Structures are given as C-alpha cells and as structure tokens.
Amino acid sequence: MEKPSLGKRIWSFPLIKTKHGNIKIENLPWFLFHLTPIAALFVEFHWGLVVLALGLYFARMFAVTGFYHRYFSHRGYTVNSRIVQFLMAFWGATALQQGPIWWASHHRHHHRWSDTEKDLHSPLRMGFWRSHVLWIFFIDDNPDFKNHDYSKVRDLTRYPELLWIDRHYYMGGVVLGVVLFAIGGLPWLIWGLGISTVLLWHGTFTINSLSHVFGKQRFETGDTSRNNLLLAFVTLGEGWHNNHHFYQGGAKAGFYWWEIDITYYGLWCMHKLGLIQKLPVPPERVIETGREMDRVRAQARRILKPGIFRRLSVEELIIVVQAVNTCVDQRVLRKLNLQELRNQIARWKESADEWLTSGPALQPA
After folding, report:
1. Domain map of the chain by residue range?
2. How far lies 100's CA from each of 76, 161, 174, 301, 305, in Å?
3. Where in the chain does DSSP place strands (E)?
4. Helix (H, G, I), strand (E, B) or coil at 141
5. Closest CA relative to residue 115, chosen from 232, 215, 212
6. Which residues pair with 227 in a beta bridge?
7. Interstrand relation of 14-17 and 22-24 (parallel, antiparallel or unpaired)
8. Closest Cα partner for 216 from 224, 208, 205?
C-alpha cells in the first residue's frame, strides 16, 4: 500500500479527537469561513454587498442542486458536450462542497442507505447537529464510506477533466475569490465569497437535517424524507425531498404546478438554449400515485385527530383509510390514543383476514 505523502499526513493531522472521528487540520478553512461575518464589521457596508452575497448564494445553489445533484449524482438529464459538462462541474466547485465525483459518490451512498446505520447524516440516527454539519468532519473515519470511493461513480471517472476538477475543486473558490477581489476589493471578497459560502453550506445542509424532520410525507419511501415548502425556496426546489426519494430519475423535484422548483425552471431555460439535450420529467404513473396519496392523506386528516395524524407514517395512514373504507367506524378510531391506534394498525397489518375480525370489535357501543 502506498504511503501517504508528508503533505497529506500533515493535512490529515488530528487537532481534536472525538468518539465519532477526528477534526483535522484540513477542516480549519471551514471554521475560518465562519469568521467572515466578524470580518464584515471592519469593512465599509452598503446594501449592494447583501445583494451580491444573495446573488452568489442562489447562483451557486443552482449549481449544487441542478448540476452536482440532479446531473452528476442522478444523471437526471443529458448535456450536449463535455465542455458544458466541465463548465457545470467548475461552477459547482465554486460552492466549495468538494468536487462533482466526490459529491455524487457520497450522495448515491446516502440514497442507498437512507436513514439506516450506514447513512452518514441521518437525523433519525444521529440527531440534528451531526446530521446537519458534523458528519463532514468524520467522513474519512467512517468505515461505511471512503472519502474517495469511486466504485459508485464509474460513469463519471471515465472523464479525465472531471477527475481533475474533483482533485482540485478548491480552484473554483480561488478563481471566484480572485475575480471578486479584483472587482470590489475586500468587501466583495468577504460578502461575495465568505458570507455567501457560509449561507450556501448551511442552506444545502438543511436537506440532510431538516427535510428529514419537518414537512409532509406524500410517499412511502422507507425513510423519513419529507416535502417542505420553505426549504424548497431556500434550496431552489430541493425541499420536495420526499418526492425525490420516491422518484430519483428526471430533472424535476416539484411534481405539480404548485410545487415551486426553481432549479428545474433554470434547467428548462438551459434546455431551450441547447445546452441540455434531454430533460425528462416524472412519468404519469408517478404523478397519479402522488395524487392518490394526497387523497389518502386528506381522508386520513378528516378521520384522525390532528396530533395523531401528524405522527403516523404514510403506510399507517394508508392502513387506517383502508380500514375505514372497508368496515371500521371512524368515530371509534378518533377515541383511540396514538399507542392504541398503532397497536390496532399492527394487528391489521399482520393478516389481511383481520380486516373483518377487527372491524366489528371497533363498532360504537
């Protein structure tokens, strides 16, 4: 086995050791970026700097969601040339969230093991802070994921230019920083690169943490992914996370006209400009399944008390609705507490025959 270089050993030297892994010297830039709001107090302020920070936040969020996520991770659409593909990768690298191959490898791992012990950032398993941000410090120490595990992304590693940008992803941030400093000096550098990047990191991380806790579950996906309108605004459409976990193909996460998906609108514009060749959307069977699940949820909401309705899984809601539509009096269901209802659901689930035997027992006295 090849011995790591001196530079690599220094870069990986542990500064703080924890039970989850080590915080290393290579993690220092992350902490330094979080000091930029303090640095902003010592430079001249005007509202144009806020516009600059937000503009670069959304421009680079589009690169993360539209390029790193929907293209490199899921191959949700095709582009017309390797030049376009490289430029997409380079602009994504300005977000300073590693390179496209690393990002895709990690994300495919997440989908494979979502909300299990092998998921690197499951709030269900790890709590908020580790799922939101602390996982990035310990990823190299995780036995279930290697930092440069390319076995999941062989479709990307055949492109030498992508391997290059993956190894030198920081060049995206360097180039952006040089341009900003050349145009607007230190204020532009602090607001356009520093503050904007910190906001971008945490905006992206909300999908790992908050979108598995808050929101609506339309589909049964075997995990805790949820749809959240607020996060859809913050992340340009990624907040429709339960939709995405149910159907990962295609370039669209907002399945219906009212589910705002700004990333898809941007990709549609690129398609009209000829930069993207095929821009598939979810098939009709997926759309119709979603409509049916919305009808089930609407009926379950009428049947159950609000506090109980919000705490049941999609599968449990389906069973309740099927029971009421078959033979169970919904007035009795409303009298049950959460644990009593879950016990009854478990009995119904064990055998289809119990739909008939359990039903009469729940008729009102």
Report:
1. 6-272, 284-361
2. 15, 11, 17, 42, 46
3. 14-17, 22-24
4. helix
5. 212
6. 216, 240
7. antiparallel
8. 224
Question: What are the start-end ranges of the H helices in 223-352?
Answer: 229-234, 241-246, 262-272, 284-303, 306-309, 314-326, 330-333, 338-350
Q: Which residues contact 229 (CB under 8 A, 6 or more apart)?
A: 239, 260
pLDDT in tens, 82-137: 999 999 999 999 999 999 999 999 899 889 888 888 888 888 887 888 888 878 77
Name the region of 98 (left: φ>0; alpha: ψ -120 to 50; beta: rest).
Answer: left
| DSSP structure class, residue 211 | G
CB 145 within 8 A of CB 139: yes
Q: How long is the chain?
A: 365
Tokens read off for 30: 């992350």
Q: Which two tokens stand for residue 176?
A: 């952006």
Using alpha carbons, list the distances in angstroms from residue 215 to 13, 67, 68, 211, 320: 40, 25, 24, 7, 20
- How is residue 132 written in tokens? 């939101």
Measure the CA–CA gap between 41 and 33, rounded to whole angstroms: 14
pLDDT tens-digit readout, 180-234: 999 999 999 999 999 999 999 999 999 999 999 999 999 988 888 999 999 999 9
Q: CA 211 to CA 224: how far, in whole Å?
A: 8
- Name the residue type at position 330: Q
